[in-house]
Write a structure and sequence with these properties.
Largest sheet of chain A: none
Largest interface: A-B, 34 and 28 residues
Order of helices and strands of chain A: HHHHHHHH
Oligomer: homotrimer
Number of strands of chain A: 0
Number of domains of chain A: 1
Helix content of chain A: over 70%
Number of helices of chain A: 8
Shape of chain A: globular
Radius of gyration of chain A: 16 Å
Structural class of chain A: mainly alpha
Chain lengths: 209, 209, 209
């Protein structure tokens, strides 16, 4: 039996949803939000980037509102965080790794959809980046905070996503985009993001140039 | 003569627009915004939720930009608040009741449109909630504040909207959605919201579980 | 050889993109953002208003994601600001004039697209205003600041844009919209905006009425 690439992308997409939903729920609990705030932050962190992607690609109803399994996975993951949060807080490094994995998965699925729809290279990479980082930005704006994506060690968040999305767009342009490339690109994003956190990498600072 | 359900929904929609526009204008005056800020907050508070709804449902040009009567009602209501604001400030409880009525009306019209377009139950309820609460979120973000919807006594804002939208989606699923059900659901949202304010109800707090 | 109005509008549009991208990059450097933040603020300041316009007009993929030349102009302009920023800081008045010119260009192109798509007068003017001011609002929200558009001397930002957009919509309604009118309207917006800054004009304050 052959598993189609579309099916695998769907499964990876749901994994990314769960990971980002958990990160949204952890944030909501830390900020002492109530259960509505927890479900909302879980949903927007997990699916906000995909909704932006679908709006930018002018697709029909965004997949997060078309296929209820996405919202269900986000809500259940968010609620599952409540009784397990002490465990999660104690092992925060794995959470950051999961967050990095979500970044990689969404950059790959976003760039794949954009490239397959025929977007030019630079816009397709940008759609991948928006898919991967948009949920976090909406999460922070709804929580009334400055988006983390531009600050401190969150800085090296956009660059791994852009590299992974670029790999997808180049592979698509060369006619060599397949499941192996997708998984490799998502893994590479995850590893670069984790290394950036571990080694404290920074992007160049224009005001020092 | 029979009045169609669509006509009644249109009238209820315009009532919700006026109510939310007034709440946006009151906020703008309290924060000493100028007349441009007043008109903008009136417009986004009144029509931001509907614009988000129309974007999520992938409809054509959002109704707030397609039918000028919505913007006109929002702007006139916003300006009408200026000379009457002392009266409005003195009777702030009625303003909260009107705001609760707007919440109910928009939850009902949003969920109705989503269900009639064939969305699954959970996404249709969420579209109702976004329609009802999205204007307030955009209003607060534009005013540079943390969205009220997750804070303090505003917490029980999403839950009544979700209950009302659920009633609409269930009635639609059972084939029993009609004008009476719509008005009943909007009234129920209004009453639950007002009761939540009056009795100081809270949603469960995950960090205390 | 005749140059079509569409071609001229495209060129004006790219000039507006460059001007707004430069203002976003200057802001990013002042706030000590890294190069990713600089490119992001340059992009959203330059193209955020146009993306909102295309979403509201229910066009296909927003032009900023369809035609890569927009993103390329925004990114190159943003990077070009880095070595020249001391010059730019010293001559900040020209920057404000360029910003005012971008405001005029985007108000004109946004209102033209909306009117030609058949929107009613008030919504068409509003689309012009959103096109002209939306990028700045998204830029400020992403930078974690209250949108400048409602504050202090930024107050008279919406009004010139609305006047310019109104001139376009009226000319379109009278069948007299042509290149001369477009340039005149964009220039008028620029001059009113610069005069408002120079003379410290304010819009009426409702809380003092």
């Amino acid at each position: 039996m052959e598993i189609s690439q579309a099916t695998v992308l769907d499964v990876l997409d749901l994994c990314g949803v769960a990971v980002f939903a958990a990160s949204g729920a952890v944030l909501a609990i830390r900020r002492k939000f109530d259960v509505v705030g927890l479900l909302t932050l879980a949903f927007v962190a997990a699916l906000g980037g995909g909704v932006l992607r679908d709006l930018l690609l002018a697709r029909e109803v965004p997949v997060a509102f078309d296929d209820p399994s996405y919202a269900i996975v986000a809500f259940i993951t968010g609620l599952a965080v409540v009784p397990t949060r002490n465990l999660i807080e104690r092992v925060w490094r794995p959470v950051l790794v999961l967050d990095a994995a979500g970044l990689g998965l969404f950059a790959v699925t976003g760039a794949t959809l954009a490239a397959e729809q025929g977007l030019a290279a630079i816009p397709a990479v940008m759609v991948g980046v928006v898919t991967a980082t948009g949920g976090g930005v909406i999460r922070d704006v709804l929580a009334g905070e400055a988006p983390q994506v531009f600050q401190q060690d969150s800085v090296l968040y956009v660059i791994p996503a852009a590299l992974g999305a670029s790999a997808i767009v180049i592979a698509h342009g060369l006619g060599g985009l397949n499941l192996g490339v997708s998984i490799f690109a998502a893994l590479a994003v995850t590893i670069i993001r984790v290394a950036a956190l571990h080694f404290g990498w920074h992007a160049p600072l224009p005001h020092r140039i």
